[in-house]
Design a protein that fits this description.
By secondary structure, the protein is an alpha+beta fold. The protein has 2 domains: about 5-180 and about 350-390, Aminopeptidase; about 190-330, 3-Layer(aba) Sandwich (Aminopeptidase), CATH 3.40.630. Helices cover about 35% and strands about 25% of the residues. The protein is built from 12 helices and 14 strands. Strands 1, 2, 3, 4, 5, 6, 7, 8, 9, 10, 11, 12, 13 and 14 form a 14-stranded mixed β-sheet that branches. Strand 11 and strand 12 (about 295-300) form a beta hairpin. Helix 6 (about 200-220) packs across helix 9 (about 310-325).
């Protein structure tokens, strides 16, 4: 087949993966506003498994959490039918190579410190590995000349992880996978909150009960839950006040969290809990409930109230709400192997990254030596030179 590239994207010339059925083309979009409705529907369909795949999430990142000079690239594969039915899309970001000519040209997934899961969005029923192979060939094709392509955090247990790695290796890239973080979660499986508590270790359960009794006996604490636009701005102000008084470092992108909270309120995802001590904001937690999963996204408390354990009290109240009221099927602590997460959750999975290096460029080869090691760069260059001898590999013109 001939894989066609949108003529508006001069940076990416056609690539021709051999032995593939006809009827597919590649497109590259520069913003989410350019996406046709069929692609928006594909993102929303994938968002049913995790809001980290939804177009609303990616738009939030693109609007408030990009570095200066960064640009969006959404690689997409679609059928060559009248509707342009999308098969797959991979949102990416890249910086301006002109700004720092000495640095490797790096293409990253549209994810950052706020992302707890990333990956391509795929149409169910379409051959997944074929779509990924086409996307990767486009990224690594002659003319793009990326020195490094970095994707994270990926679901290591998903078959997509191995398929992506294989696709990059077939495209002549050198791959290195790396651990990002552990992800603790709890499959509720229809339990009530009381049954959930009973399933925890007795030490955790007893400490939580003792702390909560102390809070309730004090008579100083009240809890507010916000799930929609009503009272949102006051709740957001309380959250930010608690966060500023906590141990947390300042947000690297100050507009992101307020925008995310407002988005979640609009979508019905928001579970913003604020605990007040003597009417002063003392603890705040940002949770999201979407598609049966309660995601614990941000927690903070004012250290002046640490002795009262108001943070634990707020956590248990939110857990009770999402289990007994929202009837979620899973509670997800998202990122990190903090001890308290293993106390409250029962299962652990891992998120990994995949960094791939281009041995056909000088900066890519130097990056292999730096990140992967000398033996691997010799093996990679030997493989590339062998393909050059067979006429299988394109080398960008200098």
């Amino acid at each position: 087949m001939t894989l066609q590239v949108s003529t508006s994207e001069k940076e990416f010339p056609p690539v021709a993966p051999p032995g593939k059925p006809a009827g597919l083309r590649l497109r590259v979009f520069r913003s989410f506003e350019e996406l046709p409705p069929a692609y928006l529907a594909l993102f929303e369909q994938n968002g049913s498994s995790s809001f980290f795949y939804s177009v609303a999430w990616f738009r939030s990142l693109a609007q408030t959490a990009l570095d200066p000079g960064e640009q969006i690239r959404i690689y997409a594969v679609e059928r060559e039918d009248a509707a342009g039915t999308p098969a797959a899309a991979l949102p990416m970001r890249c910086g301006s190579s002109a700004a720092h000519w000495w640095r490797p040209r790096r293409l990253r997934g549209l994810a950052n410190v706020y992302s707890c899961l990333f990956g391509p969005v795929l149409r169910p029923g379409f051959p997944c590995e074929e779509a990924l192979r086409l996307l990767v060939r486009a990224i690594c094709s002659r003319g793009s000349s990326w020195d490094i392509v970095d994707l994270s955090p990926l679901d290591k247990d998903s078959p997509v992880f191995a398929q992506l790695e294989r696709a990059f290796q077939e495209a002549g890239m050198v791959t290195q996978t790396y651990f990002c973080f552990g992800n603790w979660h709890y499959p509720v499986n229809g339990k009530s909150y009381a049954e959930y508590l009973q399933s925890l270790r007795s030490s955790v359960r007893n400490i939580a009960k003792s702390k909560n009794k102390k809070v309730e006996r004090s008579g100083r604490v009240r809890v507010q839950f916000l799930t929609g636009p009503e009272g949102l701005e006051a709740g957001l102000e309380a959250y930010q006040k608690v966060y500023a008084a906590s141990w947390k470092i300042p947000e690297p992108y100050p507009e992101f969290i307020p925008g995310l909270i407002r988005l979640c309120a609009e979508r019905g995802w928001l579970r913003l809990g604020v605990a007040y001590v003597d009417d002063e904001p003392a603890a705040a937690q940002l949770w999201m409930v979407s598609n049966g999963v309660a995601s614990i996204y941000k927690i903070a408390y004012d250290q002046r109230f640490a002795e009262l354990s108001v943070g634990t009290y707020l956590s248990t109240r939110l857990l009770e709400h999402v289990i007994d009221v929202d009837k979620v099927r899973e509670v997800d602590y998202l990122s990190g192997d903090d001890k308290y997460k293993s106390d409250w959750m029962s299962h652990r999975r891992e998120r990994w990254g995949m960094m791939t290096f281009n041995p056909r460029t000088l900066k890519g080869a130097l990056s292999i030596a730096r990140h992967v090691g000398g033996r691997n760069i010799k093996r990679a260059l030997s493989r590339v030179l062998g393909k050059l001898g067979k006429g299988e590999t394109h080398v960008p013109a200098k």
